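#onboarding

Welcome to the new folks! Below is a worked example of what a typical request in this channel looks like: someone posts a single protein sequence, and someone else replies with the predicted structure as tokens. Don't worry about understanding the tokens yet, we'll cover that in week two.

Example request:
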Amino acid sequence: MDITGDKLRQARRAMRMTQDALGRAIGVSGSAVGKWEAGDSEPSYDHLVKLREVLNGEPAPDSLSQLRDVVEVQARLLQLLIDDAKVRRQDDTELVDQLASLEVVLGRLLRR
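Example response:
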């Protein structure tokens, strides 16, 4: 089973919603929600936005540019944490290597 499907199922159950109820709330069938939870298919971007609103109670960004702004801020904060962790844990080469890999991914995100 897909980890995203597991998280979706956990969030839905935490809200005490059935697959049908969640589907109705975001404009799809309960069987579509079931397929997402099972990892048989994936929700579209629009459905992910609606899922976030329903399950997290947070409004989604209004546009792709706002979403990019959010990602950029989060990436920059993560970069600060990485830099701090490197300074504090220079003796842990495995951690430093993992942080370096994460920096590469963050760099790609910030260039978009």
